[in-house]
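[audit] Reproducing an earlier prediction to check determinism. Same input, same settings, fresh worker. If the tokens differ from the archived copy the diff job will pick it up downstream; this log only records the rerun itself.
[audit] input (216 residues):
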Amino acid sequence: GRTFADVVIGVPPGAAVGQGHAAADAVEAAVQRALPRSDVVVHVEPSEEEALVRERVLAAALGVPGVREVHNVNIVSLGERIEVSLHLKLPGSVSLEQAHEVANEVERAIAAAAPEVDAVQTHLEPLGEGARGLPPRVGDVERQSVAVRRIVQGATGRPPRSLRFVHTDEGVLAFLTLGLDGATDLREAHRRATEVEQRIRREEPWLADVIIHTEP
């Protein structure tokens, strides 16, 4: 006789459709190797634990006064650590100092709502500007760290306040912090952050994503 298998697998909520299909194909092939005469149906669902963290992070961020939109919420698991990055949209007329305080409040709200999150990285955007796609994803972080710092120095006249690389299944993420004058309005701060981001993406296309945090 034949064996019928109905399998449910969990994937990160932010995973691309192709990733889900690839995981399902791998599971189906593994089951059929173990049970050659089998009919396998694989259902792909978001990981419940990660989905709950994402839901609480999103709700916490949207509950902070001044935040108009939240997008590009990424949950990264690094061993026992959980890190979150997200993009916040605020009115473009607010100063960078005001926007930075909103970002700090978002981080505090996330810490209260999701205490299992160890670190939060925010990217500030003026309302009305959208997200961009991702470039190619290969490279050598150690070798290129100096290059990224050089790009930031050339674009802003000063090195980044912090620069950190995180390895994920999607590739390498770069988290960096730019220090700007607190009186700079958010539109100008975002323009400068975008300029830095675009230069990094253009010159270092091996990065999976670049998340820039601006602060006074």
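[audit] rerun output stored. Observation attached for the diff report: The helical segments are 17-34, 48-62, 96-113, 141-156, 186-203.
[audit] end
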